[in-house]
Predict the structure of HipA-like kinase domain-containing protein.
Amino acid sequence: MLTDVTVTRYITPLREGGSLPGLVEADDLGTYVMKFTGAGQGRKTLVAEVVCGELARRLGLRVPGLVTLGLDPVLGLGEPDQEVQELLKSSGGPNLGMDFLPGAIGFDSLAFEVSPEEAGRIVWFDALVNNVDRSWRNPNLLMWHGDLWLIDHGATMIWHHHWPGAATSAAKAYDASDHALAPFGPDIASAAAELAPLVTEDLLAEVTAQIPDAWLADEPGFDSPDALRRAYAQPLLARAGVIEGRIKGFEGDK
């Protein structure tokens, strides 16, 4: 499981995203971007963040560290913003925390260069998890200390919103025409050769084990959190070996 820490202070809302994440301090003295179970997008967004963030890290991509943030709803009582107060009061228990990267700036394809090799690894990974939210309009990439960091994976693995159709959904191609890194000539073939063999059943079991049980409980059609963990792993395992040939939309596609 992810490391558990407890929120000690709510600092400020971050209004760039639709789910209204917040900046918080925790009892480990860390500062985190907090995503709430009580947000409109629900706990599946947090599950996607964990699966994709932990998988990306194990594949050698840069992702801020993740923790579970225990929240006492009483913290919401002193919050003057009514929307934030309601969010805090409805999100008691474990929430998701992402390491805050102080001084990081948003990625701009006109201001930064990315090698075809790095672009290829990121595009291949996004195709694997079907990330529809890494476009030039909203890259969800940060530059920090000269390196490219991946953030915000809540809009991935859309098949987990309808498990009966998961296999069919996961078999679809990935359209990279609007991908933020498409202009950099992503080397998809090299990325696939490097990364696909790493996506094994054991690796995915390790990744899905990081999801808190509370975010997997009471899912229709599954009798236990572990059964749902296996369901998360199966489409990713199936896609890893074939997704290279299903990436469409830029000059490097097949």
About this structure: The chain has a mean pLDDT of 94. Strands lie at 4-13, 22-26, 31-35, 66-71, 93-99, 105-106, 141-144, 147-150, 174-175, 247-248. The longest helix spans residues 43-58. The chain has two domains: 4-99, 105-248.
